[in-house]
């Protein structure tokens, strides 16, 4: 596995370094901007926080960690194409795909950590005692877990985001495999891959919605609509996406095995 | 050693291998020849364990060729397969990491023999130079079966001679080398056994030295004669059908 990861690093080190560099740069610029803004007395803290939140959420939190998804798609689609020499080796397909997921995970964690560190530093510029607010900020993104412990909330938020990224990469990989398996022409393969992606996402959403509806019927009958109900249904959606991810990983491995590179 | 038993491969309506059966024995260098589209490359892919959608059996030492068998079978595809980041040295490092039978020292000496710069990036090289690197990497493996699909494509005349020289220097003890090429004149000096293919089937095969004595002509001439007869018969059959 280490050899595979080393190979992935060699292939994508430039992309990885650039994305990490961009994340650090954007993070530092934001910290610097917030630091400079804090000198102005006529701007109150809430205005600074609002501005900071907008920039951070749009630039760092959502955009930059998605570079890990771009890596996953690029790496997989290149390898199942005619240039992918990894499938000439005696390494089993499941290992190759798993190595890409591990690299995606590590890459994501690094980008995520950079973005969160910049948030932390930004908050520390506003007021030292408001660092604890940092945890609350991204704890609010998690709907799977809520407790009084802000650290646990933060971990839950991270896990939810992390898993959604991995799930997205696996979904794209499976869609590419299905598209490639269903047609010979590259154009049709791309089109089918997009259609498969939409179709699988829709099936997953419909299943989650169905369970949500069933749960709500149950809740209406008891006459309560609590946060507990939202957390439970969110967990069901989360578990469905885990089941889908495992199934799609197996689909990707089987289809890649059936129709590997070099075969027109 | 490498057995093909009634192998059938179809790509849509097109038949690439049609009941292909042949047993490749060790200690031979096979020349696999035939017109374009006769199924040579498909055979190579199947033998390398890269084809899954076929019927019949592709066996290496009695075992079905799967991913694990690729550690005993070296395969050089027709088209260049390498990663963009790779230099000549990186190619050697990649093979060293993923193929336990790869000899880095042999690779380095072959690269030096071809006069290539180990630090040069592959994407900046000409087709012929990349082909030399790929041939060096494949032949530096101590594999039991070596499959070379058009190994001299794009290589200059002197380079071609160097490739044949390297192949001839390989210790064949327990090994089978299968070379697919259209340069039969050159293959005659390298290979000892010929397998002629057409429309996904083996139509003729034999020991080259024996064939020369038996037919009192070179294998290249024999090849031309066999295919001329074959195509004539096909044309007549087509005419009769019309």
Distinctive features:
heterodimer; A: 264 residues; mainly alpha; 8 helices; globular; B: 242 residues; alpha/beta; 6-stranded mixed sheet; 26% strand
What profile does the largest beta sheet of chain B have?
6 strands, mixed
Tally of strands of chain B = 10
Gyration radius of chain B, rounded: 18 Å
Report the structural category of chain A: mainly alpha
Poorly predicted regions of chain B are none
Distance between the termini of chain B: 44 Å
| Helix percentage range of chain B | 25-40%
Distance between the termini of chain A: 28 Å
Low-confidence segments of chain A: none
What strand line-up does the widest sheet of chain B have?
A: 6-7-8-3-9-10
Main β sheet profile of chain A: none
Q: Calculate Rg of chain A over CA atoms.
A: 22 Å
Oligomerization category of the chains in this entry: heterodimer
> Which class best fits the helix and strand makeup of chain B?
alpha/beta
User: What order do the SSEs of chain B take from the amino end to the carboxyl end, as H and E?
Assistant: EEEHEEEHHHEHEHEEHH
What's the pLDDT, averaged over the residues of chain A? 74
Fraction of residues in β-strands of chain B = 25-35%
The pLDDT mean of chain B sits at: 84
The shape of chain A is: globular
Helix and strand topology:
The complex is a heterodimer of chains A (264) and B (242).
Chain A: H1 2-37, H2 45-61, H3 67-79, H4 93-126, H5 131-139, H6 150-182, H7 186-222, H8 227-258
Chain B: E1 2-11, E2 14-24, E3 28-33, H1 40-47, E4 54-60, E5 63-64, E6 73-76, H2 88-98, H3 104-114, H4 127-139, E7 145-149, H5 157-169, E8 176-180, H6 184-187, E9 193-198, E10 201-207, H7 208-215, H8 219-241
Parallel strand pairs in B: 3-8, 3-9, 6-7, 7-8
Antiparallel strand pairs in B: 1-2, 1-4, 4-5, 9-10
Helix pairs in contact in B: 2-3, 3-4, 4-5
């Amino acid at each position: 596995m280490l050899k595979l990861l080393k190979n992935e690093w060699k292939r994508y080190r430039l992309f990885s370094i650039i994305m990490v560099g961009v994340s650090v740069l954007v993070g530092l610029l934001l910290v610097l901007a917030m630091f400079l803004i804090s000198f102005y007395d006529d701007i109150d803290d809430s205005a600074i926080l609002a501005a900071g939140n907008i920039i951070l959420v749009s630039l760092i939190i959502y955009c930059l960690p998605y570079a890990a998804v771009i890596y996953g798609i690029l790496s997989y689609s290149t390898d199942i194409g005619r240039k992918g020499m990894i499938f000439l080796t005696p390494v089993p397909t499941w290992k190759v795909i798993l190595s890409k997921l591990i690299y995606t995970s590590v890459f994501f964690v690094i980008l995520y950590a950079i973005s969160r560190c910049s948030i932390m530093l930004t908050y520390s510029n506003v007021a030292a005692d408001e660092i604890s607010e940092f945890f609350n900020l991204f704890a609010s993104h998690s709907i799977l877990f809520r407790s009084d412990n802000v650290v646990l909330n933060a971990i839950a938020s991270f896990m939810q985001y992390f898993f959604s990224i991995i799930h997205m990469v696996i979904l794209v990989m499976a869609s590419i495999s299905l598209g490639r398996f269903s047609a010979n022409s590259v154009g049709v393969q791309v089109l089918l891959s997009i259609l498969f992606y939409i179709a699988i996402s829709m099936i997953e959403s419909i299943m989650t919605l169905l369970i949500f509806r069933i749960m709500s019927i149950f809740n209406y009958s008891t006459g309560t609509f609590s946060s507990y109900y939202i957390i439970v249904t969110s967990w069901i959606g989360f578990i469905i996406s885990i089941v889908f991810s495992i199934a799609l990983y197996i689909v990707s491995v089987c289809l890649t095995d059936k129709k590997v590179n070099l075969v027109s | 050693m490498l057995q093909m038993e009634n192998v059938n491969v179809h790509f849509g309506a097109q038949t690439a291998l049609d009941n292909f059966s042949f047993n490749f024995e060790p200690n031979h260098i096979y020349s696999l020849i035939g017109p374009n589209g006769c199924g040579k490359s498909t055979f190579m892919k199947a033998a390398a364990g890269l084809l899954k959608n076929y019927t019949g059996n592709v066996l290496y030492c009695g075992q079905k060729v799967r991913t694990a068998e690729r550690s005993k079978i070296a395969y050089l595809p027709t088209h260049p397969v390498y990663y963009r980041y790779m230099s000549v040295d990186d190619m050697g490092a990649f093979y060293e990491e993923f193929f336990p039978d790869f000899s880095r020292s042999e690779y380095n000496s072959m690269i030096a023999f071809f006069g290539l710069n180990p630090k040069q990036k592959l994407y900046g090289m000409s087709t012929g130079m990349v082909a030399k690197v790929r041939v060096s990497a494949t032949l530096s493996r101590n594999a039991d079966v070596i499959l070379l699909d058009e190994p001299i494509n794009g290589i200059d005349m002197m380079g071609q001679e160097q490739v044949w020289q390297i192949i001839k220097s390989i210790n064949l003890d327990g090994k089978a080398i299968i070379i697919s090429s259209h340069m039969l004149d050159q293959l005659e000096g390298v290979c000892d056994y010929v397998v002629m293919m057409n429309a996904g089937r083996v139509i003729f095969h034999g020991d080259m030295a024996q064939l020369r004595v038996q037919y009192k002509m070179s294998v290249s001439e024999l090849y031309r004669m066999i295919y001329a007869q074959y195509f004539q018969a096909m044309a007549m059959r087509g005419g009769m059908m019309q």
